[in-house]
Fold each of these.
Amino acid sequence: MFLKNAITTLLISSVVYGFAAEPERSAIQILTYRQEPDWSAPWRFDAVQRAGGSGFVIKGKRIMTNAHVVSWSRQVIVRKYQDAKPYLATVEFIGHDCDLAVLTVADESFFDQLPALEFGEMPKVRSTVVTYGYPAGGEEISYTRGVVSRIEMSGYSHIGNRRLLSVQTDAAINPGNSGGPVIQDDRVVGVAFQGIAGLENTGFFIPPPVIQRFLKDIEDKHYDGVPLAGVNFVPLQNPAYRSQLQLPDNNLGARVDYLRPNSSTSNVLQPDDVVLQIGEFPVASDGTILYQSNRVFCALGFQLGQSGDSVPVKMWRAGQAQTVNVKVVASTADRPEGNQFDVKPRYFVFGGLVFTPLSRDYLGAATRESSEASGTDLTYELFYRSREEPKLVREEPVVLSTVLGDAVNANFRLRSRVLVDRINGTRIEKISDVIRAFETSTNTYDVIEFIKSREFECLDHAEALRANDKILKTYGVPRDRQL
Amino acid sequence: MKYLHLITILVWAAMLPALAAGDPTAAASVWEKSVVKVEVSRNLYDYYQPWNRRNDRSAKIGLVVGERQILTTAQDLSDRTLVRLQKGGRGKWTNAKVEWIDYYANLALLTTDEAAFWTGLQPVNLSGKAPAEGDKLQIIRWREGKLENRQAEFTQFAVRPSELSGISHVQMELGSEIQGVGLGEPVVANSHVVGIVASQKGRTCKVIPASFIQMILAARAAGNQRGLGYFHFYWQRAENPASLAQLRLPGEPRGVLVSNVPERLDDGEQVLQPRDIILQIDGFDVDMQGDYTDPDYGSLMLENLSARGKWAGDDVKMKIWRDGKPLDVTYRLPKYEFAHSLVPAGVFDQPPDYLIVGGLVFQPLTVPYLQRWGAEWERRAPFRFTYYTGDEATREQPGLVILSQVLPDAFNLGYQEQRGFAVDKVNGLRVTSLSGLRDALKQPKDNFHVIDFLPNESLQRIVLAAGDAEREATQRVLERFGIAEAVQITPKAAAQK
C-alpha cells in the first residue's frame, strides 16, 4: 500500500513537472576532490576529501554553482541528468564574498542538448519555488518545493564576514543542494547555498540581484567583489537624538556610527551624519530601505553596483540636507577576518620557529587544537584591535605558530599561538618584516618579543642558520618560506 | 578555674595515646571542644538586576583559636545578615558576630557575647611547623551531629592565589576521599592544627597553612596589620640560556626574567625594568623556574616572598642583573586592593552599584558581574568584557562602567536592545566610575546627554534628553519595574576590617 502510494506520488510529480523538463536537464551534479591546508602547519595539506554539490547551465556554455562547492578543489567533475559520463570542469571565476562560481567544461559536447537556464526576477515572499539538486541521501536529482519565507540581509557563512541579500525558504536545502538552481516559472530565481543547523525548514538561496551583479562583475574577465561602504549604520529612532541632530520627525534616516579607517567613504561621511537616501532608496529610521517590496538593511543600497561605482547619498549634517557621491569599492583589507580559499598559507621558518600571518583560518585551526584560552589575544588582535586601537594596527599581524623542536630552540618556553611584537628591535608589521629581521641580523642572539605578555625569547643566530636545513628536512617542510 | 585546667590536662593526657593509636572515636572527642558549626544568613545579589537580593544560608566550620575567638575562612561571610554558632554538633544555636575579616587573606574571626557558649570549649594550638611527607593528617568537621574525622594525604606545598583575591601565598595541598569540604575545616596532625581547608577540587583540598594564619593573627593582635602586599610585575622563567646570554649573565642559568612592569597605582616607585634578571630576593636565590628554597616549605615560587613575613609597604631586597651588571634594588610592596584592578575580582559587603537614567542601567564592570554567566563565565560572558579582565588598570583608566541593559520606556525608544558597551565619555567627560558617571550627568550639553562608548562592534554613541524629561522617565521606570532607588553607589569599603 505504502509502495503504491509512493509510486503514485512520483508519477504525479513527473506529470506536474513535466513542463519543467528544461531545469531538470540543466541542473548539474558536481563532484569535487578537495584538499585544504593545515593553517597551523602551513606547508602541509589535510587528506583529500570527496564532496558533492549542484550547479546549473547558464549562457555561454558555463555552469553556475556556489564558490564553496568548488573551493580548494583538486579536481572538479560534472555530470548531466541521467548521464553516467563524468566530465572534467575548471573554475573560470569565483566570488568567495557572494559564494558564487562559474565553471567551464573542457569537452564542450557536455553542453549538447543542455539549454541554458534564464534568470528571473526576485521572487515574492509567500510565492512558491522549487529547488533542483543532488543532495545527500541518494544519487539521482532531487526536487523540493517551498515558499519564500523572507528576504533580508544575512551572513554568508562561506566567507564569514559579509552580509548580503539572501532569501529564506522552507524548501529543504540539504548538503549537496548547494549551487543548485531555485526555480520559479521555469526561471532561476536563486542559487541554493546554506541552511541553519538545528532549525527545521530553513534554507537560504542567493537571489537574482546578487547573481546578476556577480555576472556583470566578471564580464571584464576579472572578479572584483561586492562593493562595500565601510560604514556601520545604526537606527535613529530616539526622539532626543533626532532632536539633537535637528532632524525632522519624519521616520527617515539612519545614523553613521562608525567608519572603517581608510574605507572609500571615510573621507566623505563622518560619524553622526544621517543618511536619508542611498541611490534611489529612502532610508527609514530603523536603517532599512524598501527594496522590491521588502524591508532590508540599507547597506544593500551600496552593494547593487560594481566596485568603483559612485552612489549618490542624501544625508543630513549640521542641520542641513546635502547630497554627496560615495565611491564604493570591494575591499580586501579585511580578508584575514574572513575565511580564505584557494590560497597557499604564507609562512616563514627560521631555526625551527614557524611564523605565519594571523587570519581567521589560522585562528580556527589554533582554537581547534587547543582548549586553552590562548586564542583570546589572537581574537582581539584579529577582530577588535583595528577598531579599538587603530594606531596600533599592524598590516598583517604575525604569529609564532609552532616551534619545530631542535636543539637550537629546545629551551623556548613560548612555543605556539603567540603574536610577535618585535624581532631584533624592529616592529613586525607583516611577515616580510620577519624575514628581513632574521636575514639582515648581525646579532649573536636574535631577540623575539611577543605582544601582550611582553615576554621574549632569544635564539642563537649562527646556530639557527646552521640548523635550518636539517630542521626543514626532519619535519618534511619543503622550503623555508611560502609567500 | 584551677579545677577546670586540671580536668583539661587530664583529658589531654588521656587523649594523646589514643591519637597515636589512630582511634578515630577517641580522637574525635578532643576536637569536639574546639570545632564548632557556623551558620551564615546572607544577602545574595543578582548582578543582572542589581536592585534585587535574596536571602541565602550557608554552613561553615569554625575553630576556637583563642580567648573567645573562632577562626574560619572569609568565604560566604560577606553580605551577612546573621551569623550563628553551634557547639557539639547539635543543639542550641548562638548568635555571633564577625570580630574581624580579611577577604584578601580569606580569614575571619568570629565571637559571641553569650558567655555560656564558651563553656566547655577549648582553644587549639596552631602549629607553625609544616607537616612532612608521611605525617598522618586528618580533616575534621561536624556532620549530622557527629564529629567526622577523615584521613588526608599531604601532597605538596605550593604557592597559589587566595580563594577570594589574587594574593598568592604558600598553601598546602592534600588528597582525601572526603567530599564537600572547603568551608574552614581544620586539618590536624599530631594533635596540632596545621591549617584550615579553603577549597576542594576533586580529591585535592587546598589548605591555608597554620603558619600563614599565625602571621596574620599575630599582626592583627599587635595592631600592625597593614594589609598584604604583592609583586606588581610579571616575570618569565629563564630556561632559555640564549636569553640569559643575550642579557650577558655569566655562569649557570638562574634567576627569572622580568617581562612586564605595569604602572603602579599606589605612588610606589617601580624599581624593576623589563629585561632585568631577578637573581635573589631577601637573600634567597631564585632559580630559573622562579622558585626559591624556603626554610620551612622547601621549593616555592618566588611570589611567596611578598607574603612571607611581609606586609604592604614593607621593603623587599632584590639582587638583580641589569645591563650586564649586578644591582641591588629595594622593592616596596604595594598593597593589594580590589579597587586597583581594572575589573575588580571581589566586591564584598555591599549591594551591587548601579545607576539608572531614563531606563538605561549602568554598572561597574566587576568579576561578580561577569560571574552571572555562571562558573564558566570566562568562556561564556561577552568576549570583550572578559578580555578586559586581562588588562591592567591605569591612572587614565582605573575602572570601567558599562551599559548593562535598558529598561524599556518611551524615553529610551530605539535603545531598548542596546547593552554590553563600556562607557568612554558622558557629556564630554571621561567616565571610569559610577560616581564619575553621576557627576557627568549633572552637566548636560544643550539639555542633552551625549554618551560615548569605548570602541566596540555595535554602537559608539547614544543621546538622551536631559532635564525634566529625563527625571520623569527615570521615575516612571522605577515605578513600572518596581525598583526602589535610581542610584546605588556604596562608598568604597575596606575589604579588611
Note: Chain A touches chain B at residues 232, 234-241, 243-244, 257-258, 271-272, 285, 373, 376, 379-380, 383-384, 387-389, 411-413, 444-445, 447, 452-460 (CB under 8 Å).
Amino acid sequence: MNHSLLMALLILSPFVGFLINGFRYKKHSANLAGVIATTAIAISFISAILLVIDVVAMPSEARKIAVTFFEWMAVDKFKINAGFVVDQISSIMILVITGVGTLIHLFSIGYMHHDKGAAKYFAYLNLFIFNMLLLVLGDSLLVMFVGWEGVGLCSYLLIGFWFTDKEKAAAGMKAFITNRVGDAAFLLGMFVLFMTFGTLNFSELNALAPTVAEASWLGAVTLGTLFLFIGATGKSAQIPLYVWLPDAMAGPTPVSALIHAATMVTAGVYMIVRLNPLFIMAPNTMMVIAIIGAATAVFAATIGMTQWDIKKVLAYSTVSQLGYMFLACGVGAFGAAMFHLMTHAFFKALMFLGSGSVIHAMHEEQDIRKMGGLKKYLPITHVTFLLGWLAIIGVPPFAGFFSKDEILAYAFNSPLGSPVLWVCGALGATLTAFYMTRLMALTFWGKSRVPSHVHPHESPALMTIPLIVLAVLSVVGGWIGIPHVIGEHLGHIPNVWEHWLHPVISPIPGWQAIDATTEWTLMGVSVGLATISAVVAYQFYVKSPETPKKIAESIKPVYNFVYNKYFVDEAYFGAIINPLVNLSRSTWYYVDVNFIDKMTYWAGDLMRGMGSMVRSTQTGNMQQYAMYIGIGVVVALSFVIMR
Amino acid sequence: MTADAFLFWFLAIVTLVSGLSVILMSNPIYSALCLAMTMVGISALFVTLNAYFIAGVQLIVYAGAVMVLFVMVIMLFDLKKDLQAFTRGRFTGAVKIASVGLLAGLVVGAIAMSVGLLNEKTTDNPVLVGTGMESTKALGNILFSKYILGFEALGILLLVIAVGAVALARSKGGTHEH
Amino acid sequence: MNTEIFSNIGLTHYLVLAALLFVTGMAGVLLRRNVIVLLMSIELMLNSVNLTFVAFSKFLGILDGHIMVFFVMTIAAAEAAVGLALAVSIFKRFNEVNIRFFEHLKG
C-alpha cells in the first residue's frame, strides 16, 4: 500500500474518532462511543504494523519512510514541512502507542461504563493518541512541539475529567502549568538550536551534530540540549518538575495507564533519543541528565515506600522508572533507554490497569490499608498484577530484568557513567522491589481489611483481556533484547534490539566492551539486592504487619519527612508560587485598578463633560437649526467672496 | 427712463414690499393676501423676461391654487391675529436678523462681482423674443423629450403627496404620542 | 449722477431682486412662529429662486431654466400640500399652529 496513505490513516484515524465522539459528546451511550474510539485506534494500529513491516523489509542502513504532506511555513531560511518519519526509533513508539493504546481503549469501555461523559472521555483519548503520533512521527522539532503541546492539553483535559471535583480540576491545572514551565525551556532550546544550525529538522540536526563537539557549559549545543532537557523534565516528570505526576492520578485510571505511565511521560526520553547524536556532543548536558535521572530514580522510590494510595505508589514508581530511562540517556545508553521505555510501557500500563480493576472492584476505593487478601476475589487481576510485579522488580526472565540490567551495566561501564551512578541505580532497584512487594502484599495478600459493606468482584472480560495481553507482553517483551552474555549460553540468541537500533544510535566516545565477569557480577548483585528487598518486604507486610509500624515509629521524623514527599510542594508554594501570586495581586491592585482603570474612567468623564457643554445647543427648536444653516451659508459664502 | 425700466422698478417695489409684508403682518390672512400679491408681481416680472407660459402657470398654480389652499386652511382654523407673531429670545433673534442681513449683503456682493463675467455670454435667443407661441412650443418640446424622466417622476411624486396629505390630515393629530 | 443703473435694466437687477426676496423669506422662516406663515415664507424663497432661473434663462438664451421653474413649482405645490396637512394635524390636537409644538428634535 501507498506509504502516504498509510501514514495519513495512521495519524488521522484517531483524529476522525475524536471528531465523531467530540460532536456527539452529549450522548450517554458509553459502549458506542468506546467502540468508535477503539476502532479508530485499531485502524491506526494496523496501519502502524503495515508501515513497520515495510520498514523492516528495507536494508538496515536505509530504514526510513519519510512522508511530507505539505509545506507548513516558509520564512526566509526557516522552512518547516508537515513531514513525518517512520524509522527505527519512531516505529517502536508508534507500535507501543497504538498497541497499548488499543488495549487501554478496550479496557476503558468497561471502566467508563457508568460514566455519563464517556463520549467526551473517548474523544479526549483519541485526540491524545493523535497528538502523541504527531509528537513521535514529526520530522522536525517544531512538528514534534505541536504534538508535545497537544498531549499536554489532552493530559490536562483528562486529569481534570471529573472537573466538578475542585481538587481534580486543580490537579489538571497543576499538570498543565508545570508542563508550561518545561515547554518554555523547550522553546528556548529550539531557538538556540535554530540559531546555531539554521534548521530544526531532525535528520539535518543529527547530520550537523558531529561537527560541533564542545566541552564548555555555555556553548550553543550544551545550552540548547540543556534547555531541551529541562523541557523533557517537565513532560517526563523528573526533578525538579515531577510534582505534577502524582497529582495527575486524579484522572480516570486508564488515563493514568495510557498517558501518565506508558506514552506521554516517555516523550522526553524519546526526544533525547531522537536527538542522540546532538546530545552525545554535549558531555556536560549528558552528565546533568545522568545525575538528575539517578537522583529522581532514588528520590521518587523513597516517597513511593511510604504512600498509602495505590495509584500514588504507582505514580512515584513511574517517576522512578523514568529516572532510569534518563540515567540511561545520560550515560549514552540510548538503546537501553528505549528498551526500558518499551518494557516499562508494558508492565506499568498493566499495573495501572490492574489497579483500575482493583479500584473498580472496591467501588472507587484507592487506599491500600482498606484492601488486603484480594487474591481470592480477583484471580485474573492478581495473576496479571503478579507478572507485572515480577517484571518491574527485575526478576529474570521477565521484561524489566533485561532493560534494567542493561541500563545498570551501561551506568557502570560507560565512560560517561560512574560506579556512583550504578550504586544509585541499584539502590533504586532495591527500593523498587521493596515498595512494589509492599503494594502487592497490602493489596492482594495477607488478611483482608476490606470493609464489610464492600463486596469485591472480578472485572468483566472486556477489562481482563487487555490485562492478560499486557501480562504476556510484560513476560516476553524483554526477550528481544537479551544481552550477549546470556544469549550465548542459550544457543546464541542475538540481541535483536541492539541490531535494530544500531544505525541510528551514536556510539559512546571511548566505549570499551564490558567483560563478561563484571556484567554477571553486576547482574547478580542487583537481582540479589532486589530479591532480598522483596523478601524483607514480604516478611514485613504479610508475616508480621506490626514491624513496619514499629520501624516507622522509631524513625518518626524521617518517616514523616518522606511521607510528606519531602515537603517539595510546600517549598514550591513558599518559594515560587506565593511570591508570584502576591506580585500579581499587587500589580493588579496598583497598576490595573488604580492606574489603568482610572485612566479609562477619566477618558469617559472627559468625553461626557465635553458632551454636556455642547448639549445646550441641541434645543430641538427647528428654527434655531435653520439659523445654524444660515450662519453656515454666510461663513461659506464669505469665504468664497473674500478669497 | 424707458418704459421697460419703469415697469421693472415698479414691479420690483411692489414685489418687495408685499414680500416684506408677508413676514411682518401678524394676522395670517393678511400674510396670505400679501403673498398672493407677491406672486402676481413675480408673474409680471416673468412677462418682462419674455417667459409668458411660466408667467401663466405662476398665476394659475401659485396665485390660484396654492394660495387658495392656504386661505382655505386659514379659514378652516379660524385663526385670529397672533398674540406673539415672532419667536422669543432676544439674542437668537438678533443673531438671526444679523445672519439674514449678512447673507443679503453677501449675495448682492457676489452677484455684483460675478455679473461682469456673465454679461459677456449674454446672447439673444430667437425663441425668447417673440410673442410667446414659439417659446411655449419649444418648452413643450424640451419638456417631453429631454426632461421626460423628471416629468414622469414628478407625476409619481404628486400622486404620493396627494395620498400622504390625505393620510396626514386624517390622523388624530400631533407628531408624538403624549 | 450716473442714471445708467436706473435706466438700463440687466441681469444684475433681477438677481438682486431675487436675492432680497430670498432673504426676506428666510427671515420669515427664522423669525415667525405660525406654521402657516412659515410655509408661506418658504414659498417666497422658492419663488425668488424661480425668478433667478427665468432671468438667467433670458440672459443666457437657454430654455432649460424654464423647465427647472416648472419642476420647482410642482414641488412647491406638493410641499405646500404636505405642510398644510401637517398643520391641520397639529391644529386638530393643540388647537393652535405654533412652531413650538415641533420642538421634539432634541436628544
Note: Chain B touches chain C through 91 residues (CB under 8 Å).
